[in-house]
Model the fold of this input.
Amino acid sequence: MTLDDLRKNILTNIQVMRLLEAKQSITEEEIQLYFETNKDSLGVAEEVKASHILVATEELANEVKAKIVAGEEFTGLAKQYSTRCLVVTLSIGYSPFLLIHVS
Done:
């Protein structure tokens, strides 16, 4: 579920509640308050989009990481350092955690 999906679900829930009350517009503050009040029951963990560069040693991994942090382009570094020839960059999709792997 994306943040937009979650926002639409919250908006729908508030709209249904409002149908039972007098007609009013829903404010951003009300949407945020509803989310903060009910976020534990919504069951959506924070997620990040992750990609990886597979390298042979931890030392090389730290070197590549430093270059990424310094602003060098991820794709170029993947082409230069990755031990995976067939897949230059591999998007591993959305994950609730980040894993750095050294083979």
The CA atoms of residues 80 and 88 lie 9 Å apart. Residues 3-19 form the longest helix (17 residues). Helices lie at 3-19, 28-42, 58-69, 74-81.
